[in-house]
Amino acid sequence: MIFPCDWCSHVSNRQDNLEAHIKLHTLMRPKSGGKPRVNFYPGAVLQYQEIIRHNESRRRRKVKFGNRPASCA
Ligand SMILES: [Zn+2]
Asked: pTM value?
């Protein structure tokens, strides 16, 4: 199974590697300074947010929503 990047020709062989790679496209410039290894894409930011949201919902699947506060402001 391969996971191609939507934004460049990069191909990962694991989902989490692709997620780490897409994160690079969400950074305006690398922390260390210098030339970015990959280009920044606003669309990649949205895609990465979707990935995070998906991962969180996957992580919380076992949590029940019975503890939600009853306040309705
Ligand atoms: Zn890429």
From this structure: 0.69
